[in-house]
Design goal:
By secondary structure, this protein is α+β, with helices and mostly antiparallel strands. The protein has one domain. Helices cover 17% and strands 31% of the residues. The protein contains four helices and ten strands. The strands form two sheets. Strands 1, 4, 5, 6, 7, 8 and 9 form a seven-stranded mixed β-sheet that branches. Helix 3 crosses helix 4. The protein is globular.
Length: 247
């Protein structure tokens, strides 16, 4: 099946906001001083968004995580103002009140998805298998929308469109965001084939970067490497919307 060509068959994608458990407050809550993991997408392994700041994402099977999110559109969506300039957002579905941990059943789809992204994108398979890290995870927001990609190869997802004389690829997505609070962050490498310069940013700085659409806010973390903000990215938007609610 060709996903992402229209809203009736959006490509399902998981985005994971990874929070350093040691930076939570005394009650285990996220604060502006808490830290979230960000990285720069490697150009060789990320055709759609090369060399942009991101949180970890992974394409997943259709409906794998649907049951963890409310099926109705969130009330008041039309009043929500997004500082993130995504191409289109059609609906926002809140996550259900549900929590899993690294001790939850391996038959749990959400646990499966989280361990997949931690293993594949952050190379934590060995640490998970040997129980060197622990985590708690909560489904937060699912966004149905569309994004635009610059053409970087002949194998781009979505359909080619022309906007103001320029050609892009437009893909419809459902972005499922999960917030993962993780312990023993020393296991996380500084670079992987998916992300270079994995760094811990204070959430207040992450929020400022999204709100201003300015990656310079995090330049010091990336040693002034030339990076550009993914202005059409739903992964950053999904984490931002949840954090805006809880801060």
């Amino acid at each position: 099946m060709n996903y992402g060509l229209n809203l009736s068959s959006p490509a399902p994608v998981l985005s994971v906001g990874i929070i350093d458990k040691n930076t939570l407050d005394a009650k285990g809550a996220i604060t502006p001083e808490s830290k979230i993991l960000v990285g720069v997408r490697c150009a060789l392994t990320n055709l759609t968004h090369p060399d942009v700041v991101s949180i970890p994402t992974q394409r997943i099977p259709e409906k794998l995580l649907d049951d963890y999110y409310e099926q109705e559109e969130e009330a008041g969506l039309k009043e929500i103002t997004l500082p993130v300039r995504t191409s289109e957002i059609y609906k926002i579905r809140p996550g259900i009140d549900y929590l899993i941990t690294d001790e939850s059943s391996s038959h749990e789809p959400l646990k499966y998805a989280i361990e997949l992204i931690l293993s594949k994108k952050l190379l934590l398979g060995k640490a998970i298998e040997e129980k060197e890290i622990g985590f708690t995870a909560k489904p937060t927001i699912a966004i149905a929308g569309a994004v635009l990609y610059e053409k970087t190869s002949d194998a781009m997802p979505g359909a080619e469109v022309e906007i103001k004389g320029e050609n892009f690829f437009k893909e419809y997505l459902t972005m499922y965001n999960v917030m993962v609070k993780i312990s023993n962050i020393e296991c996380i490498p500084a670079d992987t084939p998916s992300y270079s310069n994995l760094r811990w940013a204070k959430i207040k700085n992450y929020m400022k970067m999204v709100e201003t659409k300015n990656p310079k806010v995090l330049y010091s973390l990336f040693r002034n490497r030339s990076i550009r903000f993914c202005v059409h990215g739903l992964c950053l938007a999904s984490a931002y919307l949840y954090l805006k609610k809880v801060l």
